[in-house]
Amino acid sequence: MASSDAPFQLKDLLTPATIRLHVAASDPGQVIHEAGQLLLVSGAIEERYIEAMQQALQTYGPYMVIVPGVALLHARPSDGVKRPCMSLLTLEPPVSFGNEDNDPVKIAIAFGAVDRQKHLEALTMLTQLLANEQALSAIQASTSAEEVMHIIAAASPA
């Protein structure tokens, strides 16, 4: 794990234990629950962080669907984040979040940061990944968490 002052990489946040492929979810709430559970089981968040992500969706609507096919699930650091973390789900079938421009969601990424600086670093790294349509297609087609990790490492700047 990177030291607290060094910028971390996506590979420092995502692990095979926080990746699930081909998840069947009935609605956005279940997507948030599934992605949040991976972070909870890893010890990175408190249960209330999942509730805060659910509340953010209810309060602000489907703004979390930031590019076609991808939802970025998150809440504030003060909502129960213990350490920087990330989980990734591929959804099969895709799930509609109610975002007219970017639905349906095929990949859901939940992340938690401990402070504003780490939050912005994580968003910057994610933005680079989300701009890479080839990497997103490869992640969606992946058959193992290790394969997803390899795709992300290859797509991330050194």
TrEMBL record:
<comment type="function">
    <text>The phosphoenolpyruvate-dependent sugar phosphotransferase system (sugar PTS), a major carbohydrate active transport system, catalyzes the phosphorylation of incoming sugar substrates concomitantly with their translocation across the cell membrane. The enzyme II UlaABC PTS system is involved in ascorbate transport.</text>
</comment>
<dbReference type="InterPro" id="IPR016152">
    <property type="entry name" value="PTrfase/Anion_transptr"/>
</dbReference>
<feature type="domain" description="PTS EIIA type-2">
    <location>
        <begin position="12"/>
        <end position="155"/>
    </location>
</feature>
<dbReference type="InterPro" id="IPR002178">
    <property type="entry name" value="PTS_EIIA_type-2_dom"/>
</dbReference>
<dbReference type="Pfam" id="PF00359">
    <property type="entry name" value="PTS_EIIA_2"/>
</dbReference>
<keyword id="KW-0598">Phosphotransferase system</keyword>
<protein>
    <recommendedName>
        <fullName>Ascorbate-specific PTS system EIIA component</fullName>
    </recommendedName>
</protein>
<dbReference type="InterPro" id="IPR051351">
    <property type="entry name" value="Ascorbate-PTS_EIIA_comp"/>
</dbReference>
<keyword id="KW-0418">Kinase</keyword>
<keyword id="KW-0597">Phosphoprotein</keyword>
<dbReference type="GO" id="GO:0005737">
    <property type="term" value="C:cytoplasm"/>
</dbReference>
<keyword id="KW-0963">Cytoplasm</keyword>
<keyword id="KW-0808">Transferase</keyword>
<dbReference type="GO" id="GO:0009401">
    <property type="term" value="P:phosphoenolpyruvate-dependent sugar phosphotransferase system"/>
</dbReference>
<keyword id="KW-0813">Transport</keyword>
<dbReference type="GO" id="GO:0016301">
    <property type="term" value="F:kinase activity"/>
</dbReference>
